[in-house]
Amino acid sequence: MLAFSSSCSIQGQEILPLSADRGSRSVRGGATCVLALLLLVSVTTPTIKAGGGGSPPPPGPVIVDFVAINEGSGVWTFEGQVMDPSGPGTCTVYFGGLPSLAGESVKCDGNGYFSLSIPLTSADDGTATAQAVDGQGLKSAVADANVTNPS
C-alpha cells in the first residue's frame, strides 16, 4: 500500500497544489514542503491450502468399534476394528487405563480387527483405553470402554 504525506505546518502560509514534475508543493513566502512517499508493508503468515502448493497431512487410523466383554471367571476380552487408509493390517493397538492393561498391545489383522483376552482383578474397575498406531506412526484418537466388577 502506498500512502502520500503532504502535511506542512507553516503558520500563516497558503499551500499551493502539487507540482507534478517536481514532487513538491510550493508555499507562498518562499518555503517548500516536501512530499513524503510512505510504503506500508503488510506481513502475513502464509497458509497452505489443499491443492494450492501444499498437501494436507494423510489421515490416520480411526478406531470405529471398541468394546469390553466379560467372558466370566475374571477374563475380559477387549476388541474392535481400526480403519486406516494406509492399510489396516499395519496397525498396532495399545491398551491402557487399567492396571492389568498397562503395556499390552496387539496387531490388527488384515481387515483391521483386533482382540485381547486377559484376566482382570478387582483393581481394574474403571475405563479401559485403546489407541491405534499405523505403520507411518500416525495415531488414532483414544477410544474407551467401561469395565465394572472385573473379577
Mean pLDDT: 76
The succession of helices and strands, N to C, reads EEEEEEEEEEEE
* Count of all domains: 2
List how many beta strands DSSP finds: 12
Query: Could you state the CATH homologous superfamily of the largest domain?
Result: Immunoglobulins
Q: If helices are DSSP runs of H or I spanning 4 or more residues, what is the number of helices? A: 0
Structural class: mainly beta
What oligomeric state do the depicted chains represent? single chain
Strand content: over 45%
Termini gap: 73 Å
What's the overall geometry?
Answer: elongated
CATH architectural category of the largest domain: Sandwich
CA radius of gyration is 35 Å
CATH fold-type name of the largest domain: Immunoglobulin-like
Largest sheet: 4 strands, antiparallel
Tell me the helix content: under 10%
Low-confidence stretches are 1-22, 24-49
Major sheet: arrangement of strands: 9-8-11-12
The CATH class of the largest domain: Mainly Beta
Can you put this structure into words, describing what you see?
- With 151 residues, this protein is mainly beta.
- It folds into 2 domains: 2-39, no CATH class; 62-147, Immunoglobulin-like (Sandwich).
- 0% of the residues lie in helices and 45% in strands.
- It has no helices and 12 strands.
- The chain has strands at residues 2-5, 15-19, 24-27, 32-34, 36-39, 62-72, 75-83, 92-96, 105-107, 113-119, 126-133, 143-147.
- The strands form 4 sheets. A 4-stranded antiparallel beta sheet has the order 9-8-11-12, with no helix packed on it. A 3-stranded antiparallel beta sheet has the order 2-3-4, with no helix packed on it. A 3-stranded antiparallel beta sheet has the order 6-7-10, with no helix packed on it.
- A hairpin with a 2-residue loop joins strand 6 (62-72) and strand 7.
